[in-house]
Design brief:
Two copies of one chain form a homodimer.
Chain A lengths: L13 H18 L8 H8 L3 H13 L3 E7 L8 E6 L3 E9 L3 E8 L4 E8 L7 H21 L2 E10 L2 E3 L2 E5 L4 E4 L1 H12 L8 E5 H12 L8 E6 L3 E7 L2 E2 L31 H4 L1 H8 L7 H13 L3 H25 L3 E6 L1 H19 L12 E3 L6 H15 L1 H4 L3 H4 L2
Parallel strand pairs in A: 3-6, 6-10, 11-14, 14-15
Antiparallel strand pairs in A: 1-2, 3-4, 4-5, 7-8, 8-9, 11-12, 12-13
């Protein structure tokens, strides 16, 4: 009988413990939020380390630019006043780069989680070779880094949000971009380094864009107590992500969440993925605009605005097309809810503005098909994503979470923070 | 921005640490397996506690019956010979009770994970009131406990495996049993206590039976390196479970894995769950036998044996019925694989003997419909469950895992193990 309990690891050594405690102290200060004032004494009682140990860790975090300290604060207790500690609003930050079918969006998020710089360019990436798209994205990123520097923000890492199957630094396949086996991290990092001679090389990671949009929803959206949810984002493709108890469910190979390729009708239209009758063929942007009789030649974003306008005006074909997409979404979602039992289903991308017409039929399917009355229509468990839920911001915030989890790994002068 | 990192808990106190270390030492001895010989010195270097601390913990584990020690062992190093430690093969154990549609199966698993006693009774539970079924199961459990006592095994807890939505000790709904809101743990515990006056009251927990069959597959089956898999068990219903990185994925409310109620055809036959066209209506035992033209009046088990016999004999209707069920399974499974990205899909219950006819069409659907060539036909990722994968054994083993995780909570003389 195998053991499912946590494996018996070796005891942590001194270096591991110190790095862990740097993270603990940084997070403890950060969780006080911008309003409250953290003190060394407060952190000490919060995390259970001695006052002396906390002071030493705090000094290192200040020296490396992760914490700042300001004026005196009075705790109300006897003794010397402490100085107030805060997470730095300048210095280390995260860079997020979303490469999507018809736009590239880049943003910088500071250690507190605030979005500070954003640059978005609309352009059709479908025809271009991957290397060219990544080089263009690097160009936008370089300009964003210039803007960030003017605010004294220096991203210590970058994360790429990509609309496809992402694993081990590469895009295995992004059917809507036409990418196959593209070593995106390496190409992007190389292009960015070439644009910034002499600058420190930024470590780059990559992730599926729906996964990052879901994390942005979790961290910045209005989900409140919801910790487990299914996230769907309608674009040219239909992306999906699963968040369980606050953690992204990536699957065994990193490809989980491909709800756009769940089959609706086994004999339905061919899909770019090679199968037939995938959800994307019924509820993706192209299918939706076609069903509504809207020529998308002017670009997807304007097509969706036109669809929304017509639906508002009561155009029967537009309303019918959105309702039918909602029914198909609801049908596939009911299966996903039966499998996964989330607290909520969050719809983003093009579905956000279409919710008034999309949501009722989807909710009806869920109510009828989720087992044993576990889904009640109108319960609010089917909801639109918040504006904040975007993949570029999620990508930048992922870098910030990396920093919070192990500040020593990201310190400019890491020898000062090391063992 | 919310923090997705592990919450900052308080420091562990002495009692928590001692209980944790008791578990650590017990598991370290157990992981040596029956062949190897664990010594205090070996455990000490393995878990990183001092020799004195390990000795003190070992004494308590021996006194409470979790460990035994035998003859002298020579480590090959200088110094005194140690005594060999082993996990006790008598004393504390786990009791598993599976209540299914047409049978009840009870088993006892010892601390090493070996199944030691088993009693199964075939009986149709569909007509009977829940209290009667649970009382009958308690009767079988009481007789199994008597048999266990003859082997000096004394289960310290029981787990119920139930074919329905299980949460908070109750069956919310088990459509194929006809149960609604049945407080199964309480009723079973009461019935068992009434049958064993004067005996210690056994703590009882409960879980969905497919979840426990999946855990049995994980712990006792031939999955080897597979840590993430989808498990389907064909019975009168179609149960499912998701194991991700060695852990059961229970969902936000404990109802995850209901793959039997994923929709195949939105306008298909009515299902007991209230929806239409669920997978169960195409690949459940009743549907399968009906499609094959087999009268299931003689009981499900004999019906499935007859189906297997006819398929072996090349009966076209039987082979066609199983192949069609395989196609429907494959179609739903492809969606589930796109969502979850597991290493493998494991089919148990009635699907096991039918794999020669069921597996090829299911594998073809998976190959054609899982995104981007991530599933190759014949790769062995679609496989039959092992014989060992049964819910009663999984239930008993779950109790054993509970014991290993916190032996102090289960010690007969817990004051000896407590802080």
């Amino acid at each position: 009988m195998k053991n499912y309990l946590a494996p018996l690891g070796p005891k942590a050594d001194k270096d591991t413990v110190r790095r862990h405690n740097l993270s603990l102290v940084l997070r403890a200060v950060r969780e006080e939020g911008p309003a409250a004032e953290a003190t060394r004494a407060g952190v000490s009682s919060r995390v259970g380390l001695t006052r002396a140990a906390v002071s030493s860790l705090v000094e290192q975090l200040i020296a490396s630019g992760f914490l700042t300290e300001s004026g005196k604060t009075f705790s109300g207790q006897a003794g010397r006043p402490g100085t107030a500690l805060k997470v730095a609003r300048t210095g280390p930050a995260g860079l997020g780069v979303e490469i999507n079918i018809d736009y590239v969006s880049v943003c910088v998020v500071d250690l507190a989680g605030t979005g500070r710089v954003r640059q978005t360019e609309h352009l059709d990436n479908r025809g271009a070779p991957p290397g060219e798209v990544l080089a263009r994205a690097a160009g936008i990123a370089a300009r964003t880094l210039d803007s960030a520097r003017e605010q004294d923000l220096f991203p210590v890492g970058a994360a790429l949000a990509l609309p496809g199957l992402v694993s081990g630094g590469s895009v295995r396949q992004a059917p809507n971009l036409g990418w196959n086996q593209v070593p995106a991290e390496e190409v992007f990092a190389g292009a960015l380094a070439a644009l910034r001679p002499g600058a420190a090389v930024l470590p780059v990671r990559s992730e599926n864009e729906a996964n990052l949009a879901a994390l942005a929803e979790l961290w910045f959206g209005g989900l409140e107590a919801v910790r487990s949810f299914l996230y769907l984002t309608g674009e040219i493709g239909v992306g999906g992500a699963l968040v369980l108890d606050g953690e992204l469910l990536r699957g065994a190979h990193g490809f989980a969440g491909e709800i756009g390729h769940v089959v609706v009708d086994p004999d339905g239209p061919e899909c770019r993925c090679g199968s037939r009758g995938c959800l994307e063929q019924y509820a993706g942007q192209t299918a939706l605009l076609r069903a509504a009789g809207i020529d998308a030649a002017g670009g997807g974003a304007s097509g969706v605005m036109e669809l929304e306008r017509r639906a508002h005006a009561g155009d029967a074909r537009a309303v019918g097309a959105v309702a039918e997409a909602g029914r198909m979404l609801g049908r596939v979602l009911s299966g996903a809810v039966n499998l996964f039992d989330p607290d909520a289903v969050v719809l983003g991308g093009i579905y956000r503005p279409l919710m008034p017409w999309l949501s009722p039929p989807a909710d009806r399917e869920l109510t009828g098909r989720v087992v044993s009355g576990l889904w009640s229509g109108g319960s609010g468990r089917l909801r639109a994503s918040s504006v904040a839920g975007d993949a570029a911001r999620g990508a930048a915030a992922l870098v910030v979470q990396d920093v919070l989890a192990d500040p020593a790994a990201y310190a400019a002068g890491s020898e000062r923070l090391g063992a």
